[in-house]
Structures are given as structure tokens and as C-alpha cells.
Write a structure and sequence with these properties.
Length: 219
């Protein structure tokens, strides 16, 4: 009988202990899984934060590269506003090299649309089947005649090349001059190019161009 009571007592104590463990343990288990879920979310947020930081760094590098390329383009691009600067630069190059300037002419220039793809600034018109971009192409022809020793003329040509302008040589002739001194004369035609944003057309002016004398068609 005592053994039976003892077993019953132990069973009751065990049951009570189990209930106590369950009652106390369940909230801790819930807390454990909650913290585990939050830890996963934090790790995911940390990965996203690192990704954002990396993207921001790449964006800053790209902005710096674009800014540098833009400054380089502006320095190399020749438009009507920079033609006088080109003239002054050429005169300074010739003077510093010790050569003699015989004549210098810079044309007023031509303007045409610049195509989005496969355009060549040396051509008088853009590609036939390419859409126009938001830029226009400026083309100026430079006629330059100089003379001096071969060394000085070579130094002048090197000085022009170092400017890095968007430029091509249309023609160049070098010939000896009359006299005892070893002096050569050089005549060249240079073509310089530049891109600038296409001007924004005024809607009223565009409408007037399509319907002159104030006559408008209504449809």
C-alpha cells in the first residue's frame, strides 16, 4: 500500500513538475524563436545596408568619372565661343616656339545635328538611318601658315597636338623658302570639332514657323 501511495505521489509530483516546466518553458521557447527570427532579420538588414553602402560608393565613383570626362570633353570641344581662345592659343604656341606666323584664319563654322549612333564628325551630314541626339556638332576650319626652322615648325606642330582638341588634319604642306637660312614654310588646314546641347525651341516660334503670318490650321 505504501509503495502504491509512493508511486502515486511521485506521479503527481512529476505531473506537477511537467506542468510547471511547460508553463514556464513555453514563454521562453517563444522568446527564443522570436529572438532567432529577429536575428535573421537583422542579418538580412545588415546585408542590405552593406549593399546600399557599396552602391553609394559605386555611385560616387561613377559621378566622379562622369564629371572628369565632362571636363575633359569641354576642354577638347571647340564651339563658336571658344574659337577666339583657339586663335590666342595658336598664336602663343607659335610665339613660344620662335616661329613666324604668316596668316591665321578660322572659319565661322558649320552646324549640323549629331546622331545618336555611328556618326562621323568629318561627314557633312549625319547617318541617314540614325536618330538625332540632343546635341549639335560644330565644325571650324583653321587655315594656318607659318615658317621657321624645321625644329621650330616641328615644335609648333607638337604644341598644337598637345592641346588635345577634337581635330583632324585636312591637308599639310611643308616647303623650303628662298634664302640661305634653313627655313621651311608650312601651310595646313585643320578641322576642329565640338558638341553642344541642342537649343530648346520656343513653342510659339515653332508654331509660327509651321504656320507663318499668324495663320493657324485647326483640325
Amino acid at each position: 500500500m505504501n509503495n502504491l501511495n509512493s508511486r502515486a505521489t511521485r506521479a503527481i509530483v512529476a505531473s506537477v513538475s511537467l506542468l510547471a516546466i511547460i508553463a514556464i518553458g513555453i514563454p521562453w521557447v517563444d522568446e527564443y524563436f522570436r529572438l532567432r527570427s529577429e536575428a535573421r532579420e537583422l542579418r538580412a538588414m545588415d546585408g542590405q545596408f552593406r549593399l546600399v553602402q557599396n552602391n553609394q560608393q559605386r555611385l560616387r565613383e561613377l559621378e566622379h568619372r562622369i564629371s572628369t570626362d565632362l571636363v575633359s570633353h569641354l576642354n577638347r570641344s571647340i564651339d563658336p565661343e571658344k574659337s577666339q581662345e583657339v586663335r590666342s592659343t595658336l598664336i602663343a604656341i607659335i610665339r613660344d616656339a620662335g616661329g613666324r606666323l604668316r596668316s591665321l584664319e578660322i572659319s565661322k563654322g558649320r552646324v549640323r545635328p549629331w546622331a545618336i549612333e555611328n556618326d562621323d564628325p568629318r561627314e557633312e551630314s549625319p547617318p541617314q538611318y540614325s536618330d538625332e541626339s540632343d546635341y549639335i556638332l560644330h565644325t571650324h576650319e583653321i587655315e594656318l601658315r607659318i615658317d621657321g626652322s624645321l625644329e621650330k615648325v616641328t615644335q609648333i606642330l607638337q604644341g598644337i597636338a598637345k592641346q588635345g582638341w577634337y581635330m583632324t588634319t585636312n591637308s599639310m604642306v611643308m616647303m623650303p623658302t628662298e634664302g640661305d637660312l634653313p627655313v621651311v614654310a608650312s601651310e595646313m588646314r585643320l578641322i576642329v570639332f565640338g558638341l553642344s546641347p541642342k537649343p530648346i525651341e520656343d513653342e510659339d516660334e515653332d508654331e509660327f514657323a509651321r504656320h507663318p503670318r499668324g495663320i493657324r490650321h485647326f483640325y
